[in-house]
Amino acid sequence: MPRRVLLLPFFASVTVWPAVVLGMLAGAVANAHDQTLPPRAQWRASSSSGAQPAMEPALAIDGDESTKWGGAFSPGQWLQVDLSRTATIGGVLIHWDSAFAAAYLIRSSEDGQHWQTAYETADSQGGRDYVLFPAVRARYLRLVSAPRTTDWGVSVFEFEPLAASESPRITGLQTSADPAALWSAAASGTIVGPGPRAGTRELHVRLPRALPVSGLEVFWASARRDARLEGRGVSGPWRRLADDPGSLGDSSFLAARKPRTVSELRLRVRAAPGHLPAIRRLRLLSPTQAMTTMKRYEIVASRAHHELFPSSLHGQQVYWTAVGVPAGRRKSVLDEYGDLEAFKGAPLVQPLWRDRSGRTAAAYEASVTHSLRNGWMPMPAVQWSPQPGLQLRSEAIAAAQAAGPVTLVRHRLVNTGASPVDGQLAIVVRPMQVNPPWQHGGVSPIRTVEIAGTGVRPVVNVNGRALLRSLTPATARGAAAFGLHGEREITRYLAAGRVPNRLSARDEEGLAAAALVYDVHLDPGAQHDVILAFPLGDPPADTASKALGASPPNRPDAMDEAEPGAAFDAMATRVEQQWQARFAHLGLALPDSSLVDMLRAQGAYMLINQTGPALQAGPRNYDRSFIRDGSATAAVLLRMGLASTAREYLRWYADHAVHGNGLVSPILNGDGSVHRGYGSDLEYDSQGEFVALVAEVARLDGGAASVREYLPKVRLTLQFLQQLRERTLAPGYMAASEAPERFRGIIAPSISHEGYSKPTHSYWDDYWALKGWHDGAWLAHEWGDQEMAAWALTQYAALRNSVASSIRATMQWKVIDYIPASADLGDRDPSSVSIGLDPCGQKDLLPADALSHTFVRYLDEVRERGLPGALYAYTPYEFRNVLTFVQLNRPKDGEELLSTLLTGRLVRLHPVRIS
């Protein structure tokens, strides 16, 4: 997750002209020692952790952009390159995989024993990093992930040292240090190169090795005015790459829309009165760091009124909860600050408060509390105080209506003080999603926006679709395009207490916005409601009024005939009753009633995330159905008395995912088509999960006779499981590997386990295959097919013996005292092992001492997360381990782990995903 970047304070340069000469001499000395690097064939790579065959260190220096090195799933990993002899190095080109380190160091050494830091950063954005630094003499270079970076490790496609003779040269700068120190913020300098006009200064960056670049990021150390960046090749004219007019911001992201291969860059800056423009850091922007629509928005959000923009624009993670009707095609999400995204990819709708003194506030830096109605119903509320004596509560509900489902949001302002409150509530429609770019969100393009509707209850149409209707009369309204550099971005209007003077806007870049404003006067104890309706269907803009209602009682605009706040309450009561009825029969009592509420909430969110019959793990990036998640979800719903939902899912999945050869596709799209993305036919846990789903429905709802129609598909699936095992029984299978007996007779390699980047002999698949054979034998016996039952039991026993032998062989080969997660790596992954105990029922298959060591060591690591300064990160998959401790007769340890994991409930809105 990108981190908030803490920028150093401004400081003025106090160097003098002779320093320019010193800087040039430093560059000349480095040039005198420049030499070409040894041939790549002589390089050698190593790393801090045992290499996976698919991601060994050598793959990061092989010149192949499709192969990669991957570190262990823990912080502080490093990759080292031995060049075979000492050379003068001026930088490194790094091509990160999606797992990158935001904070890392480049360390250098001549002997491999004594190390110095050549470069350090805390704000990498991944992709391709052009890492430049003052020339160092080194044979060894080491990329070190900072100790407090991601728990999930790092991965690099290519790591290429750059000879000092090929690194860029900076001229036109007054500094007492090597100008190259500006690449790593180890120095500052004043631009003194004369520009073409009075009052301008010019800096040049010459690239001896032509590189594809997007531009420069400049971190300023003094006041400045306009900045422009140009580039050119070895010959030819200068061409403008980017400019940054004005003087706002302490950095300028001067990037072109598309990268260009250049040999020289020219930065021209207009000096501020009384100042020469000074720089404290430069960053050469790689092709992956081009100017995007999202980056344009982020730049504006970092400057004036930055506190009013959504926090993800500042690189901060945002959390949310889903709002919707059971099995609905579209779901809204309400984030932790009260912002709403009505459907996937819809613009974000944000509340802002402006008091009568002119101060405008958003929730992002406030103390915010979250709640679900009655402690568990998926009717979330967010509450905060925009000013002393004023409370703003944003609550969302979704309801099925005659014109289609609708999400309603009520922003309720309550005067809790002793004095009257006056101000304005603004509802801002922003061109972005709730999810940030690093979670496949980012921009929600608003190319056209129009505020229409009769009277003072406007409808906001975005890109020809009705996004929302205000059921509360608005005082003012307006829309605006973004402008070339954000000069017409709508936030500045609202901070000034006004709106743009137009009701429509067009923006080809998709950064238009709109706002509705409501005047508020509250006497002590009074409240004021602003209610918005968001249709979740697909009405065209010209039928918005029909889609958003106007008559009979079940439509939201029955509120036209009543006070909107009271009508909202009536609808909320009806939705509340519907949720209560769905879970009324859940007869569970625990000393901690919040755990029962959590169970109800999980069941409710399972129904909301469902699309038609498709059970889905989430409403955004998981908007497709995995049999892995769906079978687990169906098992929970069966136990909660919602058998019809589980049966519908089984029918749907069996009809669309079981192929003639018995392969069960692991992922289906919402329309029932097979998802053809990565791994769609290489996940071999899905066979066992499908058979287990059939058996669960039989055991918990009607017996085996009620699912006998699935017998042919169960038989096909089991036949495919047999074939998967027979592949590893072929003569000579994996004979070139050490201890090849560890692969014999287990399930063929797949990528079911998300931790492996290539097909691996993961015991995860074997546990599920054993579950499939066991449940298949039971079903066949209950169906009266004794021949099939006997065959299934025979195959179950054979696979079980092979898995037991494989685990022992892998432990002996790896010399380990824990249960390995895969035969290939002998790696430790307790959450993967837990699936073998429940639901797969293979506890007695696993060596008891090793099983105990696996989880005792895991619990010690969990406890270390609470130590001062420890990096605390966990995955919801770890909830599986709670039950494992119970099965190991360590219930107190299970309770401790559960309590640790559940602390996330207090600060997170969205439900835990357990699969």
General form: globular
Poorly predicted spans: 1-34, 539-560, 907-915
The end-to-end span amounts to 23 Å
Roughly what fraction of the amino acids lie in strands? 25-35%
Widest beta sheet: strand line-up = 21-22-23-24-32-28-27-26-30
Overall number of strands: 34
Radius of gyration: 31 Å
Class based on secondary structure composition and strand pairing: alpha+beta
Helix amount: 10-25%
Set out the fold topology:
Elements (H helix, E strand, L loop, with lengths): L17 H15 L11 E4 L21 E2 L7 E19 L7 E6 L6 E6 L6 E18 L9 E9 L5 E3 L1 E2 L14 E3 L8 E21 L6 E6 L6 E6 L6 E20 L7 E8 L7 H9 L18 E4 L8 E4 L4 E2 L6 E8 L4 E2 L7 E5 L3 E11 L2 E10 L6 E10 L5 E10 L17 E5 L6 E4 L2 E6 L5 E5 L10 H5 L8 E3 L6 E10 L4 E9 L8 H4 L16 H19 L10 H17 L15 E2 H13 L3 H15 L9 E2 L17 H15 L10 H17 L35 H21 L2 H29 L15 H8 L10 H17 L15 H8 L3 H12 L13
Explain what you see.
- There is one protein chain.
- The protein is α+β, with helices and mostly antiparallel strands and 915 residues long.
- It has 16 helices and 34 strands.
- α8 (643-657) packs antiparallel against α9, α11 runs antiparallel to α12 and α15 packs antiparallel against α16 (891-902).
- The longest helix has 29 residues, at 786-814.
- Mean pLDDT is 88; it is low at 1-34, 539-560 and 907-915.
